[in-house]
Amino acid sequence: MTETNHARLSDLIIGHPEVTSFAELEKLVAHAGESGIMHLEFDLKPDFRDTPKKWEWLLEAAFTRGLRYE
Fold it and tell me: E-strand spans in 1-70?
């Protein structure tokens, strides 16, 4: 994650190799939303077995709602 208020999804995934599922990625994105990141760029599709078709919508909801999403 960068120190600015902007992050890319690829940076989150690379920076957290312990995340191995879409469900875990949702939680990570929710935490990013709570940590002061103002904009999350979806620069790639997550390559997890459980990534749903509407992955962008789900990650946007997690990012916007933050930890309340869980």
Answer: 6-8, 39-41
* Domain-located, residue 1: no
Q: Whole-model pTM?
A: 0.85
Count the domains in the chain: 1
41 lies in some domain: yes
Residue ranges making up the domain that contains 55: 6-69
Instruction: Name which residue leads in pLDDT, 68 or 43.
Output: 43
Let me know: does 32 contact 69? Beta carbons within 8 Å.
no
pLDDT in tens, 23-65: 999 999 999 988 888 899 999 999 999 999 999 999 999 999 8
23 Cβ neighbours under 8 A, 6+ residues apart = 50
